[in-house]
Amino acid sequence: MLLTAETATPAQAAARALGLSAVVCRAHMEAAARDAKAKEMQDLVLQWLVRTGAGRALTGEERGLVSSPLGSLEREDRATAYWRVEQLGVLAWALGRAPLARHDESPHDRTLARRVGFLRADAAAWIVAAALRSEVELRRYAVRAEAIAARLKQFALEEKPLDFKSFCLDQGIADVSFVDDDLEIAGLPLAAAPTRRWQTALCAALERDWAARWLIAPRLVAVRQPVDA
């Protein structure tokens, strides 16, 4: 866990949340690549990113995804863009705009985009006026996100049950749901959960862990983003 660096500023977090909304929107555009309205939408989004400054909060890879010609995204790139909704969910929570989704559920992308002000004319003003939760809250969530991601990565390698509840209690990690002392996935202990459900939770956890680390140490988090399935 990175605990020694300046945390992200409210303006940085707000700008990145808006930028990620554009990344997720771009993923949806791919299904309508032959529709002239989709091209108009892409042009609108690109202009809005420049006008608000939100585009500068994205990585080079993310900016490339948003600006890529419609119909050109590989399956992996489209998945990457879709999965950024998990990072958006963490930032929306940190900005006080939405509650956190459960670790085994994904947030609704359009709801998040609306709540953070995607495509609003006054988005630039909101970036300046944004407020973040306390550093204590951000760090507490970062510890939880890291623990959940680590547990799911461990399970992906071993597929064995674990007394994850005792670990969390020992580490003072709260707000985690358990079944039979292990991480709960869809109402079941991790080892009994359907493969697709825990794999989906793993992908989400990697994105959320990255976003939580970025919030508390944006300069120290590697540029490399999570590798999503």
* Secondary-structure class: mainly alpha
Q: Number of DSSP strands?
A: 3
Topology pattern, helix = H, strand = E: HHHHHHHHEEEH
Spatial arrangement of strands, main beta sheet: 1-2-3
List low-confidence stretches: none
Radius of gyration: 18 Å
Mean pLDDT: 93
Distance between the termini: 24 Å
Description of the molecule:
This protein is mainly α and 229 residues long. The chain has 2 domains: 10-129, no CATH class; 135-216, no CATH class. It is 59% helix and 3% strand. The chain has 9 helices and 3 strands, in the order ααααααααβββα. Helix 4 (75-94) packs across helix 9. The longest helix has 24 residues, at 135-158.
Give a summary of the structure in a few sentences:
The chain has helices at 10-29, 36-52, 60-67, 75-94, 109-116, 123-129, 135-158, 164-171, 195-216; strands at residues 178-179, 182-185, 188-189. By secondary structure, it is mainly alpha-helical. Strands 1-2-3 form a three-stranded antiparallel β-sheet, covered by helices on one side.
